[in-house]
Design goal:
This protein is α/β, with parallel strands linked by helices and 307 residues long. It folds into 2 domains: 151 residues, Rossmann fold, CATH 3.40.50; 137 residues, Hypothetical Protein Tm841, Chain: A,domain 3 (2-Layer Sandwich). It contains 12 helices and 15 strands.
Length: 307
């Protein structure tokens, strides 16, 4: 039985991994003024950040459409008996709904399973990779689903923003808070909890934020995989990756770049680490406090519709 794995471009998977594991990516859309681009296809990271910082045109995003998913599912059904489509959290975007609609529209005899990963970026990417590895060796669908569930349970993410300005543009956090972060050089730290970004603390300096990212990963028991992602700071990402090389083997340590669809909302200077392990060695003070705070509600990555 042939199984194919699908995910969306918010997984931030490097192209080499996508090709190696045979993962199909359904791109989101980036809108710059009146122009529309497919995430990672028609617009690169460098192009996006140049537009974001230096262009006065409004930049936003839109989810992939049900028709996009229908076409992918129908094309894959020509070679696959089963299709498993793993999407970013439905609390970030309506992509999961588009995938489900695409499943209903698809004219195919292949069985299609659509899964809400409850996360985003390389947390989603690691989940998709785990599924694709088993699919490559023709593992039963039940085993692949079990692996997805385990990866969802044991993969954690932490990120730091250089500024809250780009989140404020979405209108979900106050501009005053964004201004304070900019003036006082506060670097907010966030994680993903219950499918949404949740605050996990603030630090005053960039160096301290890197230490917090390292500690977050180092506090994980039985580490299996680590990913480091940046959008405009490759040197910082390299420093973190070198430090993580003492925690996990090279083949399970990934470097990636935050794609345009996520970058629109996070802005330049964002750093993210993702770790898959078997649990937390000891819950940190930051994480304990963050669990008691309300979730940070970010703008969804989609517009009402894509034209």
């Amino acid at each position: 039985m042939t199984v194919r794995i699908v995910t969306d471009s918010a997984a931030d998977l490097p192209s080499a991994i996508v090709k190696e594991l045979g993962i199909t990516i359904v791109p989101a859309y980036v809108h710059i003024g009146n122009q529309s681009y497919r995430d990672g296809v028609d617009i690169s990271c460098d192009e996006l950040y140049d537009q974001l910082v230096n262009n006065s045109l409004h930049v936003t995003t839109a989810q992939a459409t049900p028709t996009d998913f229908r076409k992918v599912f129908e094309d894959l059904s020509k070679e696959a008996d089963e299709i498993i489509s793993i999407q970013m959290s439905g609390k970030f975007s309506g992509t999961i709904g588009a995938a489900r609609q695409g499943k209903e529209l698809a004219n195919t005899e292949s069985d299609i399973t659509v899964i809400d990963s409850g996360t985003i970026s390389m947390s989603l990417g690691i989940i998709a990779m785990s599924a694709a590895r088993l699919a490559r060796i023709n593992a039963p669908v039940a085993a692949i689903i079990a692996e997805i569930q385990d990866a969802m349970k044991n993969t954690r993410l932490m990120g730091t923003f250089d500024t809250l300005k780009y989140l404020a543009r979405g209108g979900r956090i106050g501009r005053a808070k964004a201004l304070v972060g900019s003036v006082l050089n506060v670097k907010p730290l966030v994680t993903v909890r219950d499918g949404e970004l949740a605050p996990i603390g603030n630090v005053r300096t960039r160096a301290k934020s890197l230490e917090k990212l390292f500690d977050f990963v180092n506090n994980t028991a039985d580490i299996k995989e680590i990913a480091v992602l940046h959008n405009t700071t490759p040197d910082e990402a390299r420093i973190l990756k070198d430090r993580f090389s003492t925690l996990v083997s090279a083949e399970h340590l990934y470097a990636a770049r935050l794609g345009p669809a996520i970058g629109v909302h996070t802005g330049p200077g964002t750093l993210v680490v993702v770790v898959r392990g078997s649990g937390i060695k000891k819950e940190s003070t930051d994480e304990t406090a963050a669990a008691k705070k309300p979730l940070l509600h970010l703008p969804k990555l989609n517009l009402p519709s894509h034209r």
